[in-house]
Structures are given as C-alpha cells and as structure tokens.
Amino acid sequence: MIIKKVLVLFLLIATAVTKAQQKNISVEEIYNGTFRMQYLDRLHPMQNGKEYAVLNTNRESGVKTLDVYSYETGEKVSTLINSSEIVGLDYFIGYTLSKDERKVLLSTNLRSIYRRSSLGVYYVYDLDTKKLTQVSEKSIQEPTFSPDASKVAYGLDNNLYIKDLASGATTQLTSDGETNKIINGITDWVYEEEFSFVRAFDWNADGTKIAFIRFDETNVPEFSMDVFGSELYPSKDTFKYPKAGENNASVGLHIYDLATAETKAVDLSGFQNYYIPRLEWTPDANVLAVQTTSRKQNDINLIFVDGASGKAKLILSDKDDAYVDVTDNLTFLDNNEFLWTSEKDGWNHIYHYDKTGKLKNQVTKGNWEVTSYYGYDAKNKRVYYQSTENGSINRGVYSVKIDGKSKKELSVNEGTNSADFSTDFTYYINSFSDASTPYVFTLHSAKDGKLIRKIKDNQELKDQFSNYVISEKEFFTLPVNGEELNAYMIKPKNFDASKKYPVFMTQYSGPGSQSVANSWDGGNGYWFQMLAQEGYIIVCVDPRGTGLKGRDFKKMTQKELGKYEVEDQIAAAQALGARDYVDADRIGIWGWSYGGFMASNCIFQGADTFKMAIAVAPVTSWRFYDSIYTERYMTTPQENASGYDMNSPLSHVDKLKGKFLLVHGSADDNVHVQNTMRLVEALVQANKQFDWAIYPDKNHGIYGGNTRLHLYTKMTNFIKENL
Description:
By secondary structure, this protein is α+β, with helices and mostly antiparallel strands. It contains twelve helices and 43 strands. Among the domains are: 86-172, no CATH class; 472-623 and 660-722, 3-Layer(aba) Sandwich (Rossmann fold), CATH 3.40.50.
C-alpha cells in the first residue's frame, strides 16, 4: 500500500515537473525568429547532373557563397562565388547561372514594386576571368542571359534593352515605353498578380530573336493611394488597375530580330486573344509558343508562331464551361511534341500531344489531381510529377512512362512531399513535412525513390518544440451540405471531453485553394497553437469551391463567389456546436484577404451562429477587385450583377449581432483599403458597433518592423475579450 502511494506521488511529481518544464508560445516568439526554419536556399541543379549549387549566408559576417555540392556524397565540391572576394561588389542578394554555368547574374539593391516584381542593380560575373560587368547603371527589371550568355536582355523604364557583354554596347529594342501608358516586355499590375509572371519577353533557342508582349494601358482606369510617410504632406502612388468590368490593357505580340534590328507584330486576330498569359520559344529556334485566352478565360489556345514570317497557327484549344487555369506545365519534347495538363476529364492530369496538337495519349488518370509537374526524362521516357493519389490533403512524388504505364511511387512518407530533380533525372532532393514534422530534406534515386542520404532535417526546431505546450492537429471530414469537407482540429493540450470549449475557426476558402493540408504550418500554425494553449479549439474547414477534389467540386461556385462557401462555414460551425464538448454560444471565425471576405459574410449572415469575427484585408465587393481574377470566377458585373451584390458583405451589414474587428493596410495595392472604407461606412449607417484598425502605408501583407507583432497582439486580445 505504501509502495503504491509512493509510486502515485512520484508520477504526480514527474507530471508536474514535465508541465513546469514546458512553456507557452508567445506572440513575440512567433515573430522574433525563435522558430526559424532551415531551408536549401536557391537550389540550382548543375548541368552535369551530379552536382547542385546552393546559396549560403554567414549570418555573422554577412558573406554569401554560392557553393557546389555532390549529390551522391553531400560534400562540398567547390565554391563558385564568395562575395568577399569579388572586387567592386560588396554584396549580392540573389543569383542566376547562365546555361553554360560560366557566368552568373548577381542582384543587388533590390527594391520591391509589387508582389513579384522588383527593381535592382545587376552585375554579370565571369567565373573564368573573374571579370565583373554592371549590366546598367540604372535599376532594371528581369535581366536574362541569351542562350550563349554573350548578351543580357532587360527591362528599363517600360522599354527593352540588350547589353552585349563582349563589346559593352547597349541596344534599345523599343522606345515608346511610358509610365501608366505603354509597357514593353514587362507585365502590368494585373498580369503580374493574376497570371503570376513578370518577364513578358523570351530569347529563342539560338539567341537571334526576342519575342515580347506590349501592353497599352492608355484606357485602363487609374487607382491612387495616399502614402503618408514622414514628410509634412503625403504623396500619391498612382497606377493602372482594371477593376472587374473595366478596360484592361490591350496587348500585342512582337518579335525583334537581332540581325536586322527590326520588330515584327504578330497577327493574332484569328484567335481568342484578349489575354496573352504565356509565351516561350520552343526548342526549334523559329517556332514560338504562345498561349492566349478570351476575357471570360474559359478557353486557352496554344498557338505556334513562325519566327520568320510571323504566321500563327492554332495547335490546341482547351475549354471549360467555367474557366481554364493557366499553368507553366507545357513541356516540349523531341520534334516539338509536348506535354500539357488539363482538367478535361474532371481531374487535373498530364496529356501527350504531337507537334500538330493531335492527342497521343493521356499520361496520368484517376480520381486525383496532378499538383505539380516536374519534368520529362527523355532517356528513360518517364514523366515525373506530384499528386494527391494518397488523399487530397497529402502530396506524393511519382514517375510514369510517357505511355501511362509502369507508374512508380517514389515518396514513402505520408504527408507533403515535393521534389527537385537533377538535370539528368538521376537524383532528386525530396522535401517532406507533415502536421507534426518540420521540413526534412533528403536525397533519393529517381529510378526507384531509394533513400541515399539525409541533407537537412530541422531536428533542432523539432526538439525545440518539446519545450513548449504543443497540441496535435487532428484531420477529419465533416459532412456538410451533401459533401464530406476536409477539416482539421487543434484541441487544448489538457482537453477534457466533459467540458465545453470555445471554437475559433480559421479559413481562406478561395477558389482552388487548400487550407487543410498535411504539412508543417510554420506561419499562423504557431499562433493557432498559442490560442489552443489559451483554451480555444481551433478548427479549419475547406468548403465547396476549394481545390484538389476534382473539377466539379472546385468550379461549382462559378458566378456565386461567397454563396456556397459561406453556407458551408455556417453549417460547419453549427455541426461543431452540436458536439458535447463545444460551447455553441462561443464560436468565432477569422480570415485574411478572401478569408476576410468570408469572415465578414459569416458574422453577418451567420449572426446567430458566430459570436465574433476578425477580417483582415478583406474584399467587401468583387466590384472593387481586379478584372482577371474576379471575372475568371464571376464574369463581369454587367453580366452578373446579382452574383456580385447578393454575396457582398455590404449587402448584409444590417444582420450584424456579434463582435467584429476589421483590419486593413492603407497602401494595399492588391485589395484596396477602399473595400474596408466602404464596409465601415455601411456599418456606420446601419448603426452597428464594431472595432477597426488601419495600418498606415502597409500593403496586403501588413508587415514591417513591429507591425506583425502589433497586429497579432491586437487580434489575440480581441479573441480573449470577445470569445
């Protein structure tokens, strides 16, 4: 009896000590670098197929080195660049190797423009001669080596230029570039944001021609933002921004011939050509591949253009009743045969076409999605890709013969796997994480997926978390509105099913997105763990309209953004509220951007379900958002007025009952603060009390200095006070 009492006492003391040793995550720790992750920075597979380059930074000295490692052994083979040894250059930020890997473009003094674009000072460093050449004395955009690395093409002041590295001569290709009017070879704001590219020019295979897109923004309406800064008077940032239903830039395709110094316009009038979302030269130096689409974006044309004559020919047309996504998965094989991805059978898969556009075969098939295309090994005739074959919340790496046979699963761990292949497809570096495992980098044989060695495993970070109170992320499906919706839950560590807990729901919910994924969440995931420590159950539900569960599931929200997603989030909250351990009177919801649009709608339309909501940088009417994104899913306001207005939070402010926090950055070039100001005015006129915060001169990400710390502290306090 005495022994039993001693044992129980020991166990109690041990448990108490363990708990005492574990601490809670703080907001300060989330944003001061405490949980810093290790990555492979700027990985570049070398042309020999046996080595790869990585950019390393010494945090103490600031010295950057571009180091080459052996795939097989992991040992450093050489150092291509050491920033401390380059005469005339104190530092560099990024690099791009030429095709022959004997020259390197080095970027310095980078200044961000929008999400993907930047201006910078660039140098070419010759690895053989150690000669350093400045491309331009001015800040430029998108410098790109010619195939033989003898020249660099770049954008400057809305025009295109070529720098000859041997002679030092600079040739100006265009001269009509003008701010807020004409852009040559660099995308406008809406192309950059929604078609996800900036460089709208490309060298042909032998470096004799450059194709580029010309944007005429003359008739695009302007948007202006006050920049408050620190001076006596604020300044204005004015740029062209086509909102839904308004004029877009008119675009034209041109080919510049270096030998003749002549530019030829390509006639695309015989095709749907409202947008030109992609261009690239094929392996044939005289054949340019161009993708075009209509304003509705429900068809994509693949067009081959003769580089000499400018004659255009339709090769392939991919259509959908809703929309067709633009991808970078076009890959050319021998004789200009090509691989292409499409949702035409209801799921995203890989297809093989001959050079005339005739279908040879469907390479991948099944009720799952190809989520990334990695490349084609011509020697072994194998296609490498990532997919959801092991479940929509997971990612695996696979290979298959181009005829669709002999498929191999290369990754073995269930979770999120992605791959970087060597140039000859002998090796690949696998990046793996799951809900409880930070990123692990390992080297594998591409032939069979066999593990060769570990590279980095972030074990130090994982061990670090043993000192904190961390709860498990539980995945499940929630039956809602006739669908089994993917969801996860994070319970407090000391969860007691006999008690009732408040629920804080997080979501994004945008078209084709995914928030419920079996991967390491190193961003908001730390914040969610912190809230769980405070006694909240965290829940995330991916509603109808989100991705990776087939075409029909994703595209059923067409013309009605915010209808079915809101219905699902409200129904999900009600289903959670029916559980014995949930306090149905204490359910809140949060979201950023599209998620902010959703959180606003949910607290209004689900007034009897949600006690509180936080909306950060929300769209409040799709009438205020950009043309390409919005019209892809909604068509124009002129065509679909009810879809725009009935699902807008502005139409439902009178229903607000709970506590509502509204947050925006005043310099948000993406979702304009106009959205929040209109919602503020609507709430005021409806005589509804709410809280709000504007972060001066902050963009859509709302960061810089202590901004994130301040924002997340404010949101944490709001949750504690109102949920």
